[in-house]
Write a structure and sequence with these properties.
With about 400 residues, the protein is an alpha/beta fold. It folds into two domains: about 5-55 and about 300-395, Aspartate Aminotransferase, domain 1 (Alpha-Beta Complex), CATH 3.90.1150; about 55-300, Aspartate Aminotransferase, domain 2 (3-Layer(aba) Sandwich), CATH 3.40.640. About 35% of the residues lie in helices and about 15% in strands. It is built from 13 helices and 15 strands. The protein has helices at about 5-10, 45, 55-70, 80-90, 105-120, 140-145, 150, 200-210, 260-265, 285-300, 300-315, 340-350, 375-395, and strands spanning about 25, 30-35, 40, 100-105, 125-130, 160-165, 180-185, 215-220, 240-245, 255-260, 325-330, 330-335, 355, 355-360, 365-370. A seven-stranded mixed sheet has the order 4-10-9-8-7-5-6, with helices on both faces. A four-stranded mixed sheet has the order 1-2-3-13. A four-stranded antiparallel sheet has the order 11-12-15-14. The longest helix is centred in the C-terminal third of the chain and has 21 residues, at about 375-395. The model has no long low-confidence stretch (mean pLDDT about 95). The structure holds pyridoxal-5'-phosphate. The site of pyridoxal-5'-phosphate has 14 residues, from helix 5.
Length: about 400
Amino acid sequence: MSNEQLLNDGLAQTTLHPLNLRVKSAAGVMLQMEDGQEVIDFISGIGVSSFGHGHPEITAALKRQIDLHLHVMVYGEMRQDSQDLAAARLRALLPSSLDAVYFVNSGAEAIDGALKLARRSTKRGKIIAVHGGYHGNTFGALSVSSNEARKVPFAPLLPEIEFIPWNNSEGLSAINDTVAAVVVETIQGDAGIRIPDVTWIQNLREACSRYGVMLILDEIQCGMGRSGRPFAFEHFGVIPDILCLGKALGGGLPMGAFVSNKKWMRQFATSPELSHITTFGGHPLPCASAAAALSILKALDFQKIEMFAQQFESRIGKHILVQEVRRIGAFIAIELCDADAVEFCVQHALNNGLLIYFFLSTPNSFRVAPPLTMDRSTWMKATDILCQTLDACAASRGMEE
Ligand SMILES: Cc1ncc(COP(=O)(O)O)c(C=O)c1O
């Protein structure tokens, strides 16, 4: 199908260069295309299908919920078992200070809610964000994201946002008692899987605590088991004031959440009442799905995932074309020499039945984020296809292994 046809087909199109695959069904870690092609999903729909496609626990929970009820009332007016269960399972995996969950419909909405909560709680206006950060595309989330080219066409964005360098302690001097919040991905995703130093995150936590600034950790991509632990902040010995989740949280359904402490969250109920509301946030279907996803998360064998991911890294990392592998858990960026090589590899791998994908803001790298439920033989098959792809790319450039 031509790009022009796509645009004229009646669906808003976000790219003139879509993958252009027609998916028929998806099961486990495999995508089946309409033309019969089978593709290994090595990116989990950009960090969403982390528990595979059609996981029996998730589909059973969804079917149960469909038979009970769908939407009954806007968020917060009626008690719903699916919301209670999802919130209880989430809280059980989190430190006790994160005891109030607000469910929304997407990652960007979780960020916007968190920013509002921080302003409301601190009665301050200024927000600090971090270079390289990506937080979504609503006006609030875009304002705290760092890629200028993506922001300029939509200016003016939110005022009073200051950016500090990633993983650099000098920037922390910007934190003072005029700041409402610092918003940061615990591990940067779109910047190409950047893992910060433990000391930087700890110093950041300490500076926020010293000045009464709320630390918002965005784990929309790096949370829910992706980093090798249920939540990425567990690697760093810190606890955020607000945790933002999304993507894999909904088990394949659209959902986000921001989680904080009751003493802050309760402010949304007063002055004015209904300070932050949503029609579909906490919808029973995504909540039922999330409750199942959280139970799968709890039972994941992280040692096994680490072993598969390590074996993958050690094979791929040796390839002549690979400049660097950045990895934590099954959250992986593979950096090549240039963007053309990445383009070649994404297309070649796809032609050979493996889906890897680009980053928005990191052109020389591609992402790998397989479902955490992937078994050893599929990891190995995917690694074989990727090695052949890298070989083909190297050969096309006259490079020899
Ligand atoms: C770290 C991070 N934050 C926020 C978002 C925005 O989430 P959504 O696309 O669901 O609005 C994303 C999406 O990729 C993300 O990776």
